[in-house]
Queue: 2 jobs
Job 1
Amino acid sequence: MPHPAAATKVPVTDQLALRVNGEPQTAVVEPHTTLLEVLREPLGLTGTKFGCELGECGACTVLLDGEPTLSCLTLAGDAADRDVTTVEGLGGAEPSPLQTAFVEAGAAQCGFCTAGMLVTGTHLLAEDPTPDRSAIEAAIAGNLCRCTGYTKIVDAIELTARGEFG
Ligand code: FES
Ligand code: FES
């Protein structure tokens, strides 16, 4: 008699189709593969950072159908046929205004948190184009900066809201 698990065995790999930064992509994934793992490799989008892998640091934040999402806690299969935006997709041929602001304001030190901060900040400005500093601080509360560069990060988002960089 076959082992009960054999009758319900799930495939160990599957072909995932999703859209990343507007481009259709496919990848072979296992049931436990996270979106973060797929983005970094095989897709090679290493801007999204592998931090705590526990949902605590925000370094892995991407937009999933436009909403900030922790890619380390998202199964790749849950992104099937959905739109993912990573830090690589925030600008076009030129950096986005917020990306420029981060450079001009000195808002990136080691840079480990920067991708997550940019994704979160971009979403905030899309939802609320004129946030005050407390709204900015609340929006990035889930993004930890180990270099404690919060003041300049908030400055960069505020300067962008004021239209200083296009
Ligand atoms: S790596 Fe996802 S929250 Fe830290
Ligand atoms: S710039 Fe180093 S963690 Fe934020």
Note: The helical segments are 4-7, 35-40, 97-105, 114-127, 133-139, 150-161.
Job 2
Amino acid sequence: MSTPRHIVLTSHSRPGSNYFSPIHWGAEDARNRGPVIGSVSNPMHRNVIGTHSGSYSVYRAVSVAAGRLDPSHVPDLTNTSPVTKIGPHPQWSDPEKIVSFDPWGHVVADEFKEQISEGLDIRPTIAITQARLKLMELRDAIERGRLKPDGRVLLNNGDVNVTKIAIDPVWYIPGLARRFGVDEHAFRRVIFEQMGGMYPELVTRSDLEVFLPPIGGITAYIFGDPDTLHDPAIPLACRVHDECNGSDVFGSDICTCRPYLTHGIEICVEMAQKGGNGLVVYNRKEGRALGEVTKFLVYNARKRQEGGDSAAKYFERTECVAGVQDARFQELMPDIFHWLGVTRIDRFASMSDMKHDALVSQGVEIGERLDIPDELIPEDAHVEMEAKKAAGYFTSQTPREGADLDEVKGRIIDE
Ligand SMILES: [Zn+2]
């Protein structure tokens, strides 16, 4: 492994540019769009800001620093191609429809075979595989007679067949700025400054329009037939879920995240069994994208406040600690629907108006909206549920108000 003698600053020197291998975002096919070259093995080839793997790019750097990873290693992509074909859909060649990841990210090994064989280090930013899910809640749904195994989607032992897709973020900065309704230069500057001066090219290299941000990506689970997911004549059930490690993985009872997720999976399975399809989109946006440290601080503040944890003060406590109630902007969330070619969701399992409105404003039609059934809500999570309903989140019930809302209390901190 060799280390160059000089440190190469990326801010003003010439390595990498949109001239060497231009990216024409929104071009009609992958070759005209051009490859996204984010690897650091040859700085002259780079045409983006940042590098691959989202938040894991930091671990990669540490592996190199610790001498455990050869920085010149180029991935061998043999047999890594997608298990199913997605697209291309007309939405892929509209530069305003998909701005937060690369629509061609799963087909780079095929589309850019020649360039790769000539030595360009072009890497996939999307991978598509298959899996089988084993979930306690689905077995429970079978036992209670809500679901019946069909041997295709839901097997006799309660396992579920799925296609799953992992997507790393690839931001087209001009499109992103437009999506948020802000000036591109101002957008670049604020991102640069608020990230503590990371990625100076954001402000010095306006020729580089694509940024691979060091953040988590998206996982999508498809139930049914990925080939017909885009067909509005085939009904689609859907849950858009933002990560909540405490509940999703560990079953913490203060919120409804895991019950919402497994309920979403249940309606997806049900729809796939009836000849439709199901889609669960899982976004890495822990704790309303404020992070888990902030989230746990808020839990303490909620439990210790005068009068105890109450639905009436639920949002206020988050805002006291974080400055905002929620940092999960949903403006970019519809991108994956455009990528999958989805124009209509028939059953949408979510009480979030932000998610609903973001999809509708991006032209995705939504039929029925579903609440989580009451019996799936953990006792301590009624504080969150009632607070959300009172704040105008979607519900088919009448939200509580005033003293009635004050009465919804959670456990105290050491109970
Ligand atoms: Zn949660």
Note: Strands lie at 49-50, 126-133, 160-167, 171-172, 210-212, 218-223, 236-242, 277-283, 344-349, 365-370.
